[in-house]
Amino acid sequence: MLSDPKLSVVTFTLAFVTVTWAIREPHPVVRPLVTRYVGYANDEVTLAVHRGLPSRHVTLVISLAGPVRMAGRSLQALVGGLHTRAVLIRQDSAQEGIQLELDPLGVRTLFGVTAAELSGEVADLADFGLGWLPERLRELPWRERFALLDDVLATRAVEPVVPPPELGAAWRRLRGAGGQVRVTDLAEEVGWSRRHLGERFRTELGLTPKQAARVLRFERAGSLLRQGRTDLAALAAECGFYDQAHLTNEWRALAGCTPGTWIAEELPFLQDQETEVARS
């Protein structure tokens, strides 16, 4: 079994609901493919609806309670590809599970398909030979759950499928700039034509460079909102939007609501999560 990186587990009460968060980075062997593990649990047995926002990650959700309903499917464990519209995630039982943030360029190594094949879709984890995993994880405490994930994913990382270095460099550059790079400049930096760069992005990620940049700018704005940055005009300028109206319109398109609505619906809960984990 691989050695165990630092694990943060916190439990707190929010609006009479007991909430647990367990967060840990994957083992270094797995980290090029998976950014982090986020475990969650709460004892509220009511219909929960959450907005799954567009992000830089392919998302793996493993429910350790009832099934998760997303994009018209009801699954115990699902893989969601990159997307440019919010997806409503529903669960009508007490919630417990683990969410994994996957690098889209590592999806081929983990599952034998490209992120493009999952783009805008939801796949059953059982389709990739891991249908047994939710039941096994359910039997374990948090530390052993993450250790099992490390072991399972490390086995699949032994023979990585490496994308062209130009594509990897372009994706890292775009992420590092929060989407604020002109596609023409990005193509020149990696030595490809703009057309070829677009074709390779679509083939591997399922998004064009322009779409990926749009998602990254949106994601950056969401990150700043989580930090309490509510001056939308300043936030828009920092994240590469033309103005506050452009920011608001993009949020309507990608999140299905305005920034203000999202703050009212979900931010208090997310802030409590991050505050408690930071204290641990």
UniProtKB/TrEMBL annotation:
Q: Which domain of life is it from?
A: Bacteria
Per UniProt, the keywords (alphabetical) are:
DNA-binding, Transcription, Transcription regulation
Locate the coiled-coil region(s) and give their ranges.
none
Gene Ontology terms, MF aspect:
DNA-binding transcription factor activity; sequence-specific DNA binding
A matching Pfam family: HTH_18
Q: Which InterPro entries does the UniProt record give? A: AraC_XylS_family_regulators (IPR050204), Homeodomain-like_sf (IPR009057), HTH_AraC (IPR018060)
Q: Which residues form the HTH araC/xylS-type domain?
A: 181-265
Instruction: Establish whether keyword Lipid metabolism is in the entry.
Output: no
Q: Which PANTHER family match?
A: BLL1074 PROTEIN, HTH-TYPE TRANSCRIPTIONAL ACTIVATOR RHAS-RELATED
Q: What is this protein called?
A: AraC-type DNA-binding protein
Q: Which organism is it from?
A: Amycolatopsis tolypomycina
